[in-house]
Amino acid sequence: MKTSSILLSFLLVIVLISCKPQIESETKVVSPEEMQTLLQLDNVQLVDVRSPEEYQSGYIAEAQNIDFMSPTFEDDIKTLNKEKPVLLYCQKGGRSAKCAEKMKNLGFKKIYDLEGGFSKWKHEGYKYVK
Fold it and tell me: What is the largest CA-CA distance in the chain?
């Protein structure tokens, strides 16, 4: 009887732990059109992960530049609010995808990555700061 009570208690603990909701980061690749819509929302953080030189050649309005290749990148990205949605872009999509993975590992909740990066944004005629 004692063994079955211990076994039953153990199984109950396992079931309760496995039923605990998992909070997981969400990364979604979005088109320039979807990005334009997301930019209209309050509470979003727009991050350009290109180099400062690339950023100075043109960027999406309101974007803050956090260089993915900078030695301080991880510390810089930690200054963002993990609870607010983050919109990322780079030149073509490679660096922002890597940044999104790092951000997921750091516990950011909602991450949006611009498909095709700034190149596609410009090519499709969306406004940017020169």
Answer: 77
Residue linked to tokens 């309101």 = 62
Neighbours of 53 (CB within 10 A): 8
DSSP H stretches of helix in 1-124: 2-18, 32-39, 52-56, 73-77, 94-106, 117-123
> What is the structure's pLDDT at 115?
97
Average pLDDT over residues 42-50: 96
Q: What's the pLDDT band for 45 if we cut at 50, 70, 90?
A: very high
| Amino acid at residue number 18 | S
Residue where the block lists tokens 């005629």: 125
- 25 torsion bin: left (phi>0), alpha (psi -120 to 50), beta (else): beta
